[in-house]
Specification:
The protein is α+β, with helices and mostly antiparallel strands. Helix content is about 45%, strand content about 10%. It is built from 29 helices and 18 strands.
């Protein structure tokens, strides 16, 4: 109270918010002027602006009659810039440096806290600023003087040379013709830093008209700095509580937040963090920490948090790398953002960081030069990627910062399998974008591997399979009992003669199930993943009950049919890859997880109306056996069925055919005179997944 009495309020001032010049008002900061330039005698000769970049260039006249102006120095500068001749291209037509050019740069990126104020008749009128530009002298005329000097020297040196000497200096020129630019190369060029700089330079200047301080137009525009209506309805932004009003005047600085070390405590306190939804808590933690074991994540979320809910949420913002969770690239680099180092768009940054994460799923070590050579990104961006998830080791490379989390892999085999399917899809995308070679796809062997191996032993796979069987056993038993009850009700009129039942004998297949998961050997000592001694679910001839088999066949047939309707020709390798991606999108415990072999998949392809095309590949081909098996949908019911069948017949005789041969064969068989564009369309529609 004593302090308030010592500092009494002597006047209250009404504050009004003016909106007439909203998003139009800029503040120009001029440099300290020399004695020969004052506010009264400076004249703006011209002004121009680039609106998108908020870049301004002003040309001001210098008072050459001022006693502080050095006339001899001004004449010398004009002579160096323009030379002795005077024409329209001269910078200083008066042969005297009588003007100065100023270029602008942004003084602050966030100007929301700044406003221009006008005080009049006991009222304070505020207009928010749209930008603050600092004007600095431009010395481009010095570059012009240097260019003139070099031209004069070249002319003097070349004047004494004879015609014979000029002929001796003739050099051979090699003419090269550039190849047509591919779509992938064009996208890389458009996203490059040089292209962005070129686009900024190509923006045209917009010339402005300058009005002086005492001009009638300037006086008219200054009236817009005053609020047009003094009613409370026009100034509702100022009807705030003291704390809200203070926050409007002094919002938190973005620059200060970026300068703080990245840690959850600097974003929100733990008490504030736990008031948010679980998904937001996990996103904030992963975005700041970037790499975290699942046990540490649970401990930060507090006791009593459901681990299943955490697993469901963390998969939305992170990917599993060596048993640990690493934040996704699109969380760190949202859409419509760019690199602070090179200006590269977020889409390119996400692809580069995904490549680094994928490399760490293959090996504990990554070499920085290899990453830079593949991604074609600047060294600063690559270093940021590596620092997010690894530690630099001298003469070795970058090592993943956390050890292999074997406990999480053992406890959650279904999550591990799902993440492996996702990584297979990411790998396929990276192979297409970066054209990865075999040395990039195969992990390098380390002489001394201190961490746990990425491969899982056979005993561990059996244990994980047993855990998975226990999870699915209850559901399978319920389905079997339900089916058994239905069979009893249907056969109530007649008893089943068990001795007369003839079971179809099938040859024992020695082939292994298709690799649709990370767990091989699921059937070691098991019957379809179930122990014979467990429950009353008795298998017949080592197979699941008929109802389960029918459901599996229906699901598999639906997948094969929809796949071949989208891509009419597929190799077995590509079909298996698409099937793995389909499994990754299914919920745990789905019927397709019971185990699908290569033979079952191929038989289902033939049952859905597809045919195997025996393409005569050369014997020395490096393709795998699955890549040599080609299947095609014979009749899709569209207008290209006949054309597609002719093409398949052609490729069943030769694996490489010229375009003109294809065009002639199609014209003869289909009775149509197809041009080159129509042939290309038929090839694209029929073989979009192969050629």
């Amino acid at each position: 109270m004593a302090n308030e009495e010592d500092d009494p309020i002597i006047q209250e001032i009404d504050v009004f918010l003016a909106r007439s010049l909203l998003e139009k008002l800029y503040l120009f900061q001029y440099p300290i002027r020399p004695a020969s330039m004052t506010y009264d005698d400076v004249t703006h000769l011209s002004a121009k602006i680039k609106p998108k970049q908020q870049k301004v260039e002003l040309e001001m006249a210098i008072d050459t009659l001022n006693p502080n102006y050095c006339r001899s120095k001004g004449e010398q500068i004009a002579l160096n810039v323009d030379g002795t001749c005077t024409d329209e291209t001269s910078t200083y037509s008066s042969k005297l440096m009588d003007k100065q050019t100023f270029c602008s740069s942004q003084a602050a990126s966030n100007v929301s806290r700044y406003a221009a104020a006008v005080y009049k008749k006991g009222e304070l009128h505020l207009t928010p600023l749209h930008g603050i530009l600092q004007l600095r002298p431009s010395f481009t005329y010095l570059d012009k003087a240097d260019a003139k000097h070099r031209e004069r020297e070249a002319a003097n040196e070349g004047g004494d040379s004879s015609q014979d000497e000029a002929e001796d200096d003739v050099k051979q020129i090699t003419v090269r013709f550039s190849r047509p630019e591919t779509e992938q190369a064009r996208q890389r060029r458009v996203q490059s830093y040089e292209f962005l700089q070129k686009r900024q330079a190509e923006e045209h200047w917009v010339h402005l008209h300058y009005y002086g301080l005492k001009d009638s137009r300037s006086e008219h525009e200054r009236q817009y700095l005053f609020s047009q209506g003094h009613g409370l309805a026009e100034n509702t932004e100022l009807i705030k509580s003291p704390s809200e009003y203070l926050m409007m005047l002094m919002p938190p600085s973005v620059e200060e937040e970026n300068d703080k070390p990245m840690a959850p405590s600097n974003v929100l306190s733990m008490a504030q963090l736990r008031t948010l939804p679980l998904a937001d808590q996990i996103k904030i933690l992963m975005k700041n920490v970037k790499v975290m074991p699942f046990a540490n994540l649970l401990s930060l979320l507090g006791s009593g948090t459901d681990a299943t809910a955490v697993l469901r949420c963390v998969q939305q913002v992170a990917l599993l790398v060596q048993g640990n969770w690493v934040v996704k690239s699109d969380v760190l680099y949202p859409k419509d953002t760019s690199s602070p180092h090179s200006g590269v768009p977020a889409e390119v940054l996400c692809r580069g960081r995904d490549f680094v994460m994928w490399k760490f799923t293959q090996d504990r070590w990554v070499v920085r030069k290899e990453v830079a050579a593949v991604t074609k990104l600047c060294p600063e961006d690559v270093k940021d990627f590596l620092e997010h998830m690894s530690v630099a080791r001298i003469n070795k490379g970058w090592e993943f910062m956390l050890p292999y989390d074997e406990d999480f892999v053992k406890k959650h085999p279904d999550i591990v399998q799902r993440q492996q399917m996702l990584w297979m899809g990411i790998q396929a995308k990276l192979e297409k974008v970066y054209n990865l070679l075999k040395e990039h796809l195969t992990p390098k062997k380390q002489e001394a591997q201190s961490a746990h191996p990425l491969l899982v032993s056979g005993e561990q796979r059996v244990n994980m399979a047993k855990a998975k069987v226990k999870q699915n056993y209850g559901q399978l038993e319920k389905e079997f009992q339900k089916q058994k009850a239905e069979m009893k009700s249907n056969d109530a009129s007649a008893k089943m003669d068990v001795p007369n039942i003839r079971i179809k004998e099938e040859p024992v297949s020695v082939e292994e199930p298709m690799d649709t998961s990370a767990h091989e050997g699921l059937n070691n000592g098991l019957v379809n993943g179930l122990h014979p001694a467990q429950g009353s679910m008795d298998p017949v001839n080592g197979h699941l009950p008929g109802g389960c088999i029918d459901r599996v066949a229906q699901e598999l047939k639906a997948f094969v049919s929809s796949t071949f309707k989208k891509q009419f020709v597929l190799t077995l390798s590509e079909l298996k890859r698409l099937f793995n991606l389909h499994l990754a999108s299914l919920p745990p415990g789905h019927t397709l997880f019971s185990g699908i072999s290569d033979k079952m998949l191929q038989d289902m392809v033939l049952d859905t109306g597809c045919k195997q095309i025996l393409v005569p590949f050369p014997p020395q081909t490096a393709a795998s056996p699955d890549e040599l098996k080609v299947y095609a949908l014979w009749e899709a019911g569209d207008t290209y069925d006949q054309h597609r069948q002719v093409l398949l017949e052609i490729f069943s005789k030769n694996y490489r055919v010229r375009r003109n041969v294809i065009q002639n064969q199609l014209s003869q068989e289909c009775g149509e005179d197809l041009n080159k564009q129509e042939v290309d369309r038929v090839l694209k529609v029929s073989f979009c997944s192969l050629w």
